[in-house]
Structure formats: structure tokens, C-alpha cells
Write a structure and sequence with these properties.
single chain, 550 residues, alpha/beta, 9-stranded mixed β-sheet, 8-stranded mixed β-sheet, 12 helices, 29 strands, 26% strand, globular
């Protein structure tokens, strides 16, 4: 192995790590502006009132709260802590370690496993999943806006994207592995080449990134720097136990949200209540929002009663139509040292799949100590390259069910991967494209020379030898299915919320996050969810001003 990776590379890696540590220390010593209005939930008064209570300081919740704070008093509640002081979270090299360093109640990533046995994760930190993801940023496809059922304002939609992009989106600079992916995609016909663009376009493109040129992460939390400081309070380590309701004055609804119950990290309870014309807004994500609705008494009547939960509103589809885009692919050891890279280049095919890739730098396991070997003062490194396909849609739907009446316990989730045969065929199409990519000239330098010729050194299951067989490729898809962390649904438009994302049958309650989506937007939902928070915040402000003037 030492012949593959000369010791000079190890020295270079050590120097780079020293430089990065210096940069990280400098960056982490500077607290972001929003920390001026962040408090630990233990410091909240027993009771307080606000115009808007946003539950979930994640990808949608942060831009939403920042926007509403312009004219109104806002409380943003986040069950986790803050990201800026954690070097693992704030560096792109920390993506995989963050997903692995988990515990039941405190880690930034909250692990859960679907009933199919597929490991997954939820964001549990200010910034939500945008603070622990791979950073890829690409706008939704045009078809998404028509199919979403959301009442979009086209002018606000564009302005909202721009507002986000000005603050936290960067153009990545491609290095060797991402360049090889780009060249390989074009070689196998994933055309045209669209260069760097934030728009969803058929062909091969370079998307945006929320990591800057130094590899420093930006997230939805950074959008809180744009909030009006005197109008917003952010409480961290704040677990919302349930939504509070009272009789409604509206003839269309029996109940109206009036606030929430918060439990802090010391186990004490606090009440946040709404002022007149205020709203509780759930932005807790595709797992958290339907979970909190069920525990608060909004869901199927008989199901809630079986758990002893008082029924506030019979809403049979809460937790239903839950989706997760399947990810399948391969990984192999590179014969040359690669840089660490997350998703930067994407191939948008016309056969129902998106192709992406990443590369990782890992240390060799320490050899067994021997009196005949001199131990090295610095470790040796090797690189692993991965190519993956994401199935669009998907059409296969699952559901969420309670595992406990304790909000901190993950609910039971089933996604029913590939239960719809269209999804399975799209996976077959995508994995065949991965096979074509491996056979391209652009990938030839990533093969090892052996007795039988040049070959890839795969880690994990390789693609089937007979890639023309639908049966073998389908079996590969089923056996290697994993998540790309783009799950959505559970509070979908037209069934749980209306086109303005108001919960049907209840006043003063909305859901604004990816749980309202019945289809994943484009190659990656991050851009769309960030935009959604800003867009809906602006719509609420305009709607309220119009009512005040009538």
C-alpha cells in the first residue's frame, strides 16, 4: 500500500490539517450576530406571549422566523444547540463523522432506522438538516411548483431564492474527482453541459454549495443574522411537548392554536402563548411536524384514541404519504490520493435518475506493532470514491406511527422503498448509467492494474456483471438501497394543510417545511425548503398588512 501513497502525501496532509485547524480556530472564535438573541430554554420565563411561535429552527424555520421578525415578535424554538462552536459540523470533512457521532438526546444528528432497516438521520441543531448535510444547493424543477399544490407567488418565489443565495450559497471549485465525474457524465451522453447553474436543467451541471471556498459550512442558521434583533428570541434545547388549543370563534373550525408547551433541558415546563391574530407554525421537518401534530391531538380519531390522546381534530392523513428518495451506488478505493469532496456535479438524466459523486480521505488502520518495524509519526491515507444515483419522485409512499407519547422518542417510520414498480425501474435505469460511467475513459485512471488487467477495487457490493438483466439490476437496487436524506411528506398539501399551508380544520396553525411536499424538488430539496421559509414569511407579512388595511 505504501507504494500507492508515498509518504510525502502524508506530510502534505499533516500540513493541510494544521492550516485548517488554524483557520477553524479563527472562525469559531467569532460568534455569529444571531447569538445576541439566542437563549437556553432554561432561561425562558414560565409564560410569555408572541405574535408567531415557530417550532423548529431548521432549514425552513430559520428563514421564516427571520422574515417574520421584521414586523412582529417571534419565538423560534430549537430542540438542539448551536452549530458555530462545533468544528466537526462546520467543516465539510465533518459530514460523515457528524452522522456517525450520535446519541439518543443531544447529538446534532438524531439517528433513526426505518422499519425496512435503512439507517437515516434528522437534524437536531439550529440550522436543522442544513447544518449537517452535504451542502448541495440546486433549485427545484419547474414541474415541482405546479405539482406541489402550494399557492406560490412567482415574484416572491424568485426574490426568496435570491435572498437565500446572496447570504449562504457559493460556486464550488472542482478538483480532480468532481472534474472526472463531469467529464464522464458528458462522455456517456448526459448532455448538454450547463456549467455552473443553480437552476434545474437536463444534462450535466455544477450546482451551488453552502460550503465556501475554505470548506466552511453555512446553513439556515446564518439567515438569522438578517433578523430584527429587537423582535426575535431563539430558545435552544427547547423541546416542544404539545400544541395548546382553545375553542375557536371561526365557524369553519372548532379549535384554534393558542400556544405551545416547552420542556427545557432541566425538565422544567414553560408556556409560550399567542397574541391576538398570531399563529403557531410547525417547521420541525417531515418527521417532527407530523409527530407533533399526532401528539397534540391532530390525526386519525380512532388511532389517537388508542393511544389515549384527546382528539382535537380528526385529520386522517397526518403521517401518511411519507416518502424517501432511494439512493443506490458503488464505492471503490482510488489508486491515487483524492481531495475530500461532497456533491458538486450532478447528472440530470431523462430516465428518472440523478447521478452524483463524492470522495473521502481516510487514514489506513494502524499496523500491528513489531520489533522489526519502525512506527511512523504520521498516518498514511487512502481515498474512497463513491458514485450514486437518486431516484426521482418517488412514487412509493410510506407512513409514520407513534412509538411512544414521549416527543423525544423517534416515531416508527416506514418508507416502502420500491413498492411502486416505477421507482424500481428508475433505479435500474440509474444504476445502468453508473455502469456506463465506470466504463468511460474519464474513469480509467481510477482502476488498479492487476494480473487480469485494470479493475476497480470495490468496497461493498459491486454492480452486477450482467447489467442488461432487469432481474439482476432490480435485485441490486433492493439489496443496496439507502437514503440520501431527502425524505418528505407526512403533512401533504390538500390532505393535512391547504394551499397556504394552514392546517385544515384548525385555526392559527400552519406547517411550513418539507413535510408538505408530495414530491422531492429537483436534485436536492435544500434550496427549495430554504426558499419556502422566506416565501411563506413574506406572504404572511403581506396577508397581515392587507387585513390591517381593510
Amino acid at each position: 500500500m505504501a507504494s500507492i501513497i508515498p509518504k510525502c502525501f502524508s506530510f502534505i496532509i499533516v500540513i493541510i490539517n494544521m492550516m485548517l485547524f488554524s483557520l477553524i480556530s479563527s472562525t469559531l472564535s467569532q460568534s455569529p450576530t444571531y447569538m445576541a438573541f439566542v437563549v437556553n430554554a432554561t432561561a425562558l420565563p414560565p409564560e410569555d406571549s408572541f405574535d408567531y411561535i415557530v417550532v423548529g429552527g431548521g432549514t425552513a424555520g430559520c428563514p421564516l422566523a427571520a422574515t417574520l421578525s421584521v414586523n412582529h415578535r417571534v419565538l423560534l424554538l430549537e430542540r438542539g444547540g448551536v452549530p458555530h462552536s462545533n468544528p466537526t459540523i462546520m467543516r465539510q470533512e465533518g459530514f460523515i463523522p457528524t452522522l456517525r457521532q450520535v446519541d439518543p438526546f443531544h447529538s446534532a444528528a438524531q439517528a433513526f432506522t426505518s422499519e425496512e432497516g435503512v439507517p437515516n438521520a434528522r437534524g437536531r441543531i439550529l440550522g436543522g438538516s442544513s447544518a449537517i448535510n452535504a451542502g448541495f444547493y440546486s433549485r427545484a424543477d419547474d414541474e415541482f411548483y405546479d405539482r406541489s399544490g402550494i399557492n406560490w407567488d412567482p415574484l416572491l418565489l424568485e426574490r426568496s431564492y435570491q435572498w437565500v443565495e446572496k447570504s449562504i450559497v457559493f460556486e464550488p471549485q472542482l478538483q480532480s474527482w468532481q472534474t472526472a465525474l463531469r467529464d464522464g457524465l458528458l462522455e456517456i451522453g448526459v448532455q448538454p453541459y450547463n456549467g455552473f447553474t443553480l437552476k434545474h436543467s437536463l444534462g450535466t451541471k455544477i450546482g451551488g454549495s453552502t460550503f465556501n471556498s475554505s470548506g466552511h459550512r453555512h446553513s439556515a442558521a446564518d439567515l438569522l443574522n438578517l433578523a430584527r434583533e429587537t423582535n426575535i428570541k431563539i430558545a435552544v434545547y427547547a423541546s416542544v411537548e404539545r400544541i395548546l388549543f382553545a375553542a375557536s370563534d371561526s365557524p369553519e373550525s372548532k379549535e384554534s392554536a393558542i400556544g405551545v408547551v416547552i420542556r427545557d433541558s432541566a425538565g422544567y415546563f414553560h408556556h409560550a402563548l399567542l397574541r391576538e391574530k398570531g399563529e403557531v407554525i410547525l417547521s420541525a421537518g417531515a418527521i417532527g411536524s407530523p409527530h407533533l401534530l399526532l401528539l397534540s391531538g391532530i390525526g386519525p380519531r380512532s388511532y389517537l384514541s388508542s393511544w389515549g390522546i384527546p382528539v382535537v381534530n380528526h385529520s386522517p392523513f397526518v403521517g401518511e404519504f411519507l416518502y424517501d428518495n432511494p439512493r443506490n451506488g458503488i464505492s471503490f478505493v482510488s489508486p491515487k490520493l483524492l481531495e475530500h469532496s461532497l456533491i458538486q456535479v450532478v447528472g440530470i438524466t431523462d430516465s428518472g435518475a440523478y447521478l452524483e459523486a463524492s470522495s473521502n480521505v481516510l487514514p489506513f488502520p494502524s499496523p500491528v506493532h513489531s520489533i522489526f518495524m519502525r512506527s511512523s509519526s504520521s498516518p498514511l491515507y487512502f481515498s474512497v470514491a463513491s458514485i450514486m444515483e437518486k431516484t426521482i419522485g418517488p412514487l412509493s409512499a410510506g407512513s409514520l406511527r407513534l412509538a411512544s407519547t414521549e416527543i423525544r422518542v423517534n416515531p416508527n417510520v416506514r418508507f416502502n422503498y420500491f413498492s411502486n414498480p416505477v421507482d424500481l425501474q428508475r433505479c435500474v435505469n440509474g444504476t445502468r448509467k453508473v455502469g456506463e460511467l465506470l466504463r468511460s475513459q474519464a474513469m480509467s485512471s481510477y482502476r488498479f492494474l492487476g494480473w487480469s488487467g485494470a479493475e476497480f477495487r470495490f468496497m461493498g457490493l459491486p454492480l452486477p456483471a450482467n447489467q442488461t438483466s432487469d432481474e439482476e439490476m432490480s435485485d441490486f437496487c433492493r439489496r443496496t438501497v439507502s437514503t440520501i436524506w431527502h425524505y418528505h411528506g407526512g403533512c401533504v398539501v390538500g390532505r393535512v394543510v391547504d394551499p397556504n399551508l394552514k392546517v385544515i380544520g384548525v385555526d392559527s396553525l400552519r406547517v411550513i417545511d418539507g413535510s408538505v411536499f408530495s414530491i422531492s424538488p429537483g436534485t436536492n430539496p435544500q434550496a427549495t425548503v430554504l426558499m419556502l421559509g422566506r416565501h411563506m414569511g413574506l406572504k404572511i407579512l403581506i396577508e397581515r398588512m392587507q387585513k390591517a388595511n381593510t
